[in-house]
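Possible regression after last week's pipeline update?

I re-ran a chain I had predicted before the update to compare outputs. Posting the input and the new output here so someone can diff against the archived version. Not blocking, just want to make sure nothing changed silently.
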Amino acid sequence: MKLKIAALTIVATASGLTACTTPKVEEKKDVVVAPPPPPKLPSAKENFDKGVAAFDSGNLDEANTLFTKVADKVPTSLITQYNLGVIAERQGRLSDAQTRYEAAHKIDPKHKPTLLNLGRVYRLQDKFAEAIALYEEALKDNEFDVELNNNLTVAYRLAKNYTKAEDTARRVLSRTKDNPDAYKNLALIYFDQGNLPLAQFISINAKKLDEKDPGVYNNLGLIYLQQQEKRLALAQFQKAVSLNKDFAPSLFNIGAMALSYRDYLTAEKNLGRTTELDPTRYENFLAYAWALDGQKGKDAKKGLKAGEVFEKVLSLKSDQGDAVCGAAWAYAADKTGWDKALGFFEKCKALSTTSAQDQQMIDNKVKGILAMQKSGQQAAQPAPEKPKPAAPTGPSMLDKAEQEAEKAPDTAPPAADPAAPAPNGTTTPPPATNTTPPAEAPKADAPKETPKAEEAKPAEALKAEEKKP
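New output (post-update):
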């Protein structure tokens, strides 16, 4: 009996132990997930190579972004700063181009491509003193450097320091007697001073040295034009373009001559092309704007386009009064441009060059626009120009030049003053002189961390290739 109790007791105790035992719950530990590694950013060299590829494909905005990233990481990279300057110059951003070229020049004051391009950008902004100082400083190391001396000649001539310009050109010829660029510069020096026979004589000699140089024919065209030989002048400009279809100075001069005959379609074609070839010269855009403005009587959209081009002129030269007033009258051609027209009319009226008569005309036009805006009317289209524009079935511009020469070969009027007002609120710009772009510079030695680059021609950007070890 006692054994049974003991056994029951043991069982009971065991059962109690079993009943009171809490099952052990395994604790779950928090799993720490490591964040993904940050994306690997392209190296400076990778961005540089991508920038070169973007430029080669014509995507200058992307190339500019990529080279800027390189410059942010490696601000002392000469070629990167130079590349950014070339792209800015090609896009017509002269102030940015100057900043980048100056940065490159600070890194290496002897880098000739930078010297040539920086000097050209100074000249394009009428900063002739800065260009002269740059060239003179560079020539201290090599006073007979041909490219630098030819560019110094141009700077002296544009600054109207003809004595020094001639001395510099002759210094080049004393070392390289058959240098075509020096002859072209010398011819333009005499041309600017009105010595047309000597300018013509030198230009003919330059043509003997290089019969395929379009600049020589362009200079001869300018001389003939100044002598009122318009037929001969046009033929020379056309010869230059036949040698180089993208020779901007002669395309500009052909367009300017067409504009003087109110052959607006020919002017638009040639002058529009010059803005593509050389977006750094405000004169190209100004003449192109007048070619478009001359057609606003028949097509108001041409007037609006002219207004946009006048604004481009102001982005290159903010104090260009003709562009301010031109934009006002161009935008006034269509109601969609009236708001802009009113703003430009206000600026035009405030110019010191705006006569009292023109101010009265502006007041009358503004009142008319405000009245039409209030009534919701469309602007009345301007009357067509009285002079008959050239048409495919009519006489060509060359025919007109020949007819004009036959009628008055010795009494033809001088070239139009670009500031003189013409009918319908337009002005006729005279042909521009060729400032003779510098010869291509030799390849530049690049820093070890970047590819080497070739000198950029005027309005052209560089191409780069990886530097071989």
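Follow-up from reviewer: compared with the archived run. The radius of gyration is 35 Å. Marking as no regression found.
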